[in-house]
Amino acid sequence: xxxxxxxxxxxxxxxxxxxxxxxxxxxxxxxxxxxxxxxxxxxxxxxxxxxxxxxxxxxxxxxxxxxxxxxxxxxxxxxxxxxxxxxxxxxxxxxxxxxxxxxxxxxxxxxxxxx
Length: 115
Fold this sequence. Notes:
globular
């Protein structure tokens, strides 16, 4: 399993970012995929997950209505569209195979929300 996250950066509160996760080494189109985020000293928070069919999604309450997970199975890529970003969304974001977001992860991508 290889996962490469990208797309992070610094954004002002209320802004938007789209993260990408390029997957390889497994049958991406057959697997549930998820996003988690990690803040030093605060542990890991599950963000959400998407079924292989690209239709069924699940979100943590903290991001529901602001974040959207989608995927392109032809490109073996998972996405996380983040709108209305808040300072508390600042974290390193990781994608993962499966619903629960367990390792292995990629290197992660840093998202910083600050004015």
